[in-house]
Amino acid sequence: MIELPHFSPLRATATKLPPNREALDRLDHLLVVAPRDDDSALARLPHGKRLATLRARAARNGDDFACSRAPNARATGLTVGTFAAERGFAALSWAAKAVRECLRDKPRSLGIALAGLRADAERAAAESLLAAAGAAAFALPNFKSKTARAPRLGTVRVFGAREAIDLRSARAQTLGNNVARWFTALPPNMLTTGTYRECIEQIAKARGLSARFFGERDLKKLGAGAFLAVAQGNATRDAGIVQLKYRPDRTAGATLALVGKGVVFDTGGTNLKPFTGMLEMHTDMQGSAVALGTLLALAELGVPFGVDAWIAITENRLGADAYKPQDLVKALNGTTIQVIHTDAEGRMVLADTLALAAREKPAVIIDYATLTGSCVSALTERYSGVFTNRRPANALLERAGAESGERVWPFPMDEDYDELLKSDIADVKQCSVETAGDHILGARFLSRFVPKDIPWIHVDLSAGQHKGGLAHVPTDITGFGVRLTVELLTRTTAGPSDLARRLEA
């Protein structure tokens, strides 16, 4: 069994009061954030003249920040920066730089003084800095035999916030993002199909969630031939689908279904990948980790609607029993599929999982997957692609992406794309022999497994990994998708039922 970490180790508090000298003496480092060209707010803080001098130095040098130390007994570190960004990607990217500057001092305790900002800028700066600090304070798995244990940031206190800071939302989103990143980073011989299921069930038990496992025998009875085709080449018979339930009201069902691709290692199967293409294939389960993290974030927030996470766990292995091109399989909803390429396993796994989730009749289904390289080719690793069976959802998704800082771009879903998936022997081809537009064809394939009366969103996680991190996240593995979904369902809309109503209006 894997030892699970504390996924939200950072303790954050806030006060409307500015920091005084006593508060400064209790901090290892203080970050002061002020508007441009206004020293009046700095003058009211301890060592205000020094702070104004630091900001002037940064401006002369064309830098975002300037650092020094306070003349107190603790020699508290000081970083001064200006903030002029709106909420979203730019604000989060700025916050990542600010936190990185502060962490050069290796503080355990960090203060953030918001000095003279407008109310909207104050909220954006505080929210972004808490997100960046929460991501930076969390350590991804490390198995070096000798590791220098540097002190990690443990507490953050926000000073001078005139309006209440939503610490609960910051904590929930940090929790979900850290969960998604940590599981995605685990080596494949540690996060096996069996251990992944055990970890999910352990988390569920600790957080009062219920979990049900559909093993291979259960899935065979249900007729989930698409999932089982991928799993049949595995060395062990422990693949399956976990249904994780959050219910604020025990009598209510789920109005939201989150579906995640959890291929814990993808060799490509019979159509074997080259070795460089296989080096990151332990991360091919990150869609499921995002679904898990999103459910935990929503549960932490105590949202008033039921949520299911359907986590599809398997490997895609090469072996004597592995599925092959031109195999014919039948999915859970009765659709027959002509297999074309065994490395298009993600859509096979998701097909049955979507069909299973749809049986619960949720108001909305959202799935997450590292489905195609085509989406990376189209967008790079800075945006993720979104696809939906309700065109009005595109504007809402773009807005949620812009506001959350997890930017998305909608792709077409016109029916004539299905011509490229026509089969002479089955209802549908798994994919096209041609590779152009595979991200669109993958989404069109998946749409067959969601009833037309259920609004559905597919997120192709092209921004799930980005060299050097992305926005507020400092690691290559970004955990992209948690903030986007929380934003969509708690700020852009009032939950899945409201989202569904808007899409049908």
What this model shows, in words?
- There is one protein chain.
- With 505 residues, this protein is α/β, with parallel strands linked by helices.
- It contains 17 helices and 17 strands.
- The protein has helices spanning 21-25, 40-43, 48-61, 89-103, 119-136, 167-185, 193-206, 216-222, 225-231, 275-278, 286-301, 345-358, 373-379, 393-404, 438-447, 482-492, 496-504; strands at 11-14, 29-34, 65-69, 77-82, 109-114, 155-159, 210-215, 240-246, 254-266, 306-316, 328-330, 336-338, 364-369, 384-388, 408-410, 428-429, 456-460.
- The strands form three sheets. It has an eight-stranded mixed β-sheet with strand order 7-8-10-9-13-17-14-15, with helices on both faces. A six-stranded mixed β-sheet has the order 1-6-5-2-4-3, sandwiched between helices.
- Strand 11 and strand 12 form a beta hairpin.
- Helix 6 (167-185) runs antiparallel to helix 11 (286-301), helix 11 packs parallel to helix 16 and helix 14 packs across helix 16 (482-492).
- The radius of gyration is 24 Å and the shape is elongated.
- It starts with 10 loop residues before the first strand and ends with a helix.
- The mean pLDDT is 95.
